[in-house]
Amino acid sequence: MTARIRLQPEAIGMGMTSQRVRDRLIERLQSTGISDDRVLNAIRAVPRHLFVDEALATRAYEDTALPIGHGQTISQPWVVAKMTETLLETPRPAGAPPMRVLEIGTGSGYQAAILAALGLEVFTVERIGELLRTARKRFRSLGFNIRSKHDDGRIGWPELGPFDAIIVTAAAPALVDALTAQLAPNGTLVCPVGGSGGQTLIRLRKDEAGTVDEAQLAPVVFVPLLPGMVD
Ligand code: SAH
Questions:
Q1: Are the CB atoms for 139 and 112 separated by under 8 Å?
Q2: Residue nearest atom 16 in ligand 1 by C-alpha distance
Q3: Which of 18, 31, 35, 75 is catalytic?
Q4: How far is the centre of ligand 1, averaged over its atoms, from the C-alpha of 95 (Å)?
Q5: Which terms in the Gene Ontology molecular function aspect does this entry carry (predicted)?
């Protein structure tokens, strides 16, 4: 898989957003257990500094979550990498079309962009209209073809399911049944589960017969999955 991304001059970056600074983030991810070269290359290619406010651009290649407004955050790169690696472990028959991936919690759009850069077909749902509008502008200007909707993602996107992979980027008190139901046989779902004190990243796999198997991957910290929609 190759990164499908058209780099504009501002996406190439200078100083604290230069390729050298980005390469340091890649080294850090490698030293903290991320080994899938496809994921590392996508993180190297996608300009994270264009997914945060200009005032925070100099911190964009630190391995840390950053505020994106409305009390929300762009996830820590390590968490993005770990979740993406987990989805890429989904078994695919030779010659199968790109995986169809549903993301709940578009936020800045960064995680969706990483998935799209990997050549996956991405669908993303966000409950805060203003965040979604900003993310859509980024997708357009960087040339990503990502389908999105403004909705409460706890219902998933039933008309377009099932999905080969589902990634929930906000913390749920428990796995969401409607989302598990929209996961295709042989699919993988990743979701942080737990309360405000901290959560566990859960991987759910569905086999050919639809039987599910759950594993705990890592402790993580996410903003909560909230009900309803706001403009
Ligand atoms: N994947 C994002 C992370 C954003 S933080 C990124 O790469 O930047 C989590 C996001 O989930 C927030 O934008 C929040 O508004 C959104 N969210 C929370 N509950 C939601 C719900 N029920 N449906 C859709 N989005 C939700």
A1: yes
A2: 105
A3: 75
A4: 33
A5: protein-L-isoaspartate (D-aspartate) O-methyltransferase activity
Q: What is the CATH number of domain 66-220?
A: 3.40.50.150
Question: How far apart are the CA of 127 and the centre of ligand 1, in A?
Answer: 7
Domain assignments of the chain as residue spans, ordered by start: 66-220
At residue 198, the pLDDT reads: 86
Hey, which residues does 188 pair with through a beta bridge? 165, 205
CA of 205 to the centre of ligand 1 (A): 22
Q: Do 201 and 76 form a contact (C-beta atoms < 8 A)?
A: no
Q: What is the mean pLDDT of residues 166-193?
A: 98
Q: What's the predicted TM-score (pTM) here?
A: 0.95
Mean of the per-residue pLDDT values of the chain = 95
Tens digit of each residue's pLDDT (9 = 90 or more) over 31-40: 999 999 999 9
pLDDT over 60 at 191, yes or no: yes
Task: For helices 110-117 and 77-88, give the axis angle rounded to 10 degrees.
Answer: 40
